[in-house]
Design brief:
Helix content is 50%, strand content 4%. The protein is mainly alpha-helical. Among the domains are: 78-128, no CATH class; 141-194, no CATH class. The chain has a two-stranded antiparallel sheet. A hairpin with a 5-residue loop joins strand 1 (57-60) and strand 2. The chain starts with a helix and ends with a helix. Mean pLDDT is 82; it is low at 157-166 and 187-196.
Length: 196
């Protein structure tokens, strides 16, 4: 699966709207969303319009207008957003449940590549459909606080990111699932201390 730039920007904008809500900002302008992620404003505004049409984002007019989530973040699935924007999760169209298209293979039912790609699709869907925007926001904020970084749209200051932080290679131990498991461990630890 290759996430399109449009889907990436839609996810980033939605996550940022969730973060804004968590830090007490009721609306965020399109310009603020674009600036926070160094994204093109025109492209973000088109994506936000699509998300509004889908009932994920709502717009507010006026001096303090902008965008906010139209639904609670815990009801917006990551897989839902990816499918909304990109259409399918499968790496090839003949392995897709929602956007199936016949391929050129002479025997699709016995094609090893298709069988493998169906498993890839199932693994991707299992992860993306398991998590909500609220969970991504929670893990993101937890990591930012751990690292002393002020969340976007908050009115606090924090230490600047090191120059090479944005360019570092992806470390498997730094992924969302690792952050979620740390979050779960912290909740268990806190609950255990409360019961002592």
């Amino acid at each position: 699966m290759h996430l399109s730039k449009k889907a990436e920007y839609a996810l980033r904008a939605t996550i940022n709207l969730g973060i804004a809500a968590e830090v007490g900002r009721t609306t965020i302008s399109g310009a603020e969303l674009a600036e926070a992620n160094r994204l093109p404003l025109k492209f973000i505004e088109r994506i936000l319009q699509e998300l509004r049409d889908a009932g994920i984002v709502e717009t507010h007019r006026g001096k303090f207008g902008g965008y906010s989530l139209a639904r609670p973040a815990n009801t917006i699935g990551v897989g839902e957003l990816v499918r909304l924007v990109d259409g399918r999760l499968a790496p090839i169209s003949c392995a897709s449940e929602n956007a199936y298209q016949q391929c050129s293979c002479p025997d699709e039912n016995h094609c090893g590549l298709r069988m493998l790609m169906i498993d890839v699709r199932n693994a991707i869907a299992a992860i993306l459909d398991r998590y909500s925007i609220a969970q991504v926001v929670e893990v993101t904020l937890r990591k930012m606080r751990r690292d002393g970084i002020a969340p976007p749209f908050s009115h606090t200051t924090s230490a600047a990111l090191p120059e090479d932080a944005a360019r570092s290679k992806a470390d498997p131990s730094d992924g969302f699932l690792a952050g979620l498991s740390q979050l779960s461990y912290s909740h268990q630890e806190t609950n255990g201390l409360e019961n002592i």
